[in-house]
Amino acid sequence: MAPPMENRVHQSMPALKVVHLTSVHSAMDPRIFKKECRSLARAGFDVTIVGPHPEDTVEEQVRILSVKKHRSRVARMTRTVWSVFQAARQLDADVYHFHDPELIPAALLLRGIGKNVVYDVHEDYPKDILFKAYLPRWSRPLVSRIAEHIEKAACRHFSALVSVTPFIAERLKAANSRTAIVYNYPYPEELIGKAPTRWKDRGVSATYVGTITPQRGIVEIVRAMELLPSSLDAVLEIAGDSMPEQIKRFEGWSRVRFHGPLNQTDTYGLLRGARVGLLCEHPIPTFVESMPVKLFEYMGAGLPVIVSDFPLWRALLDGLDCAIFVDPLSVREVARAMDYLLTHDQEAERMGRRGQAAVIERWNWNTELPKLVDLYTELVSARCAG
């Protein structure tokens, strides 16, 4: 495995001062802290995160300035955002990099005083609004259109944009040509652990980790457990936020181990102990065009994957022979794929190894860090030249 890129770039990098801003995510969010900020600090940058955290501290060379995340959505979008802006302004950084659309007003204020500001677009937010349960169904299309208009108008003023998928980048490039795609790939060395897990030491289990909603296929994967033969002593390991009570009434729930929310270390440990990774998201626009990090985490942990049969995912995994594609709305198809992988050990292990090799070679964070380093350097150099 090649050494992390952060260890190979820091000698030539100036000590630029970079501040990451969030009002929604934890300051310890895996993309914000573990990937972007921690690796930037190791590469020689002076890095600070302003965001929700219990206290001010320093973690792995990254300074964290805590702000209170209010429970009320209105209070968070006003008082929390203002607190983030006030803290950010006092830091006088070379580059400000923000992660939430509700911080757009604060980001525009920073641009107004001449700062380099980068907007990291984690998701296709206008499309996400179409599925927000807290909004009346009739209002969602209108709110989505308004949000898209505001986002595009604001993006014209930012120094640069960072996107996690080509589809989001393409949508925003018309507003800002300086748009970089920085995929949310994992660190393979953390997924594999100190030593690869032997297949025979893994449990006879499939796993799902992440957000738990009907649109992400939780109903289908739990009900699929009902169709597995009773002679197959299989378990479904789930880690995520709260589980809807109606899911627990399905017969398949008796074969589920629900772990609740886990930190990244424990999540990766769970993956290394399973034999199948499940990604059966429903065919809605925000998912069909996404590249979810859990796909690469499953593969990096050596799991064969059962995934929704989306054109993007088929094209991405074409030729690797590490996945079974299913109709995510078909409980029977999901069950059939699980049954096959849990009863064909040699083939499942080979599929898992092929997927893991792809993550080690190309779909990992070490390939993405240089994009961020180059972007920051170009922004500061252009400002100095101007």
Q: Which class of secondary structure composition applies to the elements?
A: alpha/beta
In quaternary terms, these chains amount to single chain
The major β-sheet equals: 8 strands, mixed
Give the termini distance in whole angstroms.
41 Å
Strand line-up in the sheet with most strands = 3-4-2-1-5-6-7-8
Let me know the CATH homologous superfamily of the largest domain.
Answer: Glycogen Phosphorylase B
Topology order in helix (H) and strand (E) letters: HEHEEEHEHEHHEHEHEHEEHEHHEHEHHH
Helix content range: 40-55%
Radius of gyration: 22 Å
At the fold tier of CATH, the topology name of the largest domain is: Rossmann fold
CATH architectural type of the largest domain: 3-Layer(aba) Sandwich
Number of strands: 14
Q: How many domains make up the 3D coordinates?
A: 2
Strand content: 15-25%
Q: How many helices does DSSP assign?
A: 16
Mean pLDDT, rounded to whole units?
Answer: 92
Describe the protein in words.
With about 375 residues, this protein is of the alpha/beta class. The protein folds into two domains: about 200 residues, Glycogen Phosphorylase B (Rossmann fold, 3-Layer(aba) Sandwich), CATH 3.40.50; about 170 residues, Glycogen Phosphorylase B (Rossmann fold). It is about 40% helix and about 15% strand. It has 16 helices and 14 strands. Strands 3-4-2-1-5-6-7-8 form an eight-stranded mixed beta sheet, with helices on both faces. Strand 1, helix 2 and strand 2 form a beta-alpha-beta unit. The longest helix has 19 residues. About 0% of the residues have low confidence.
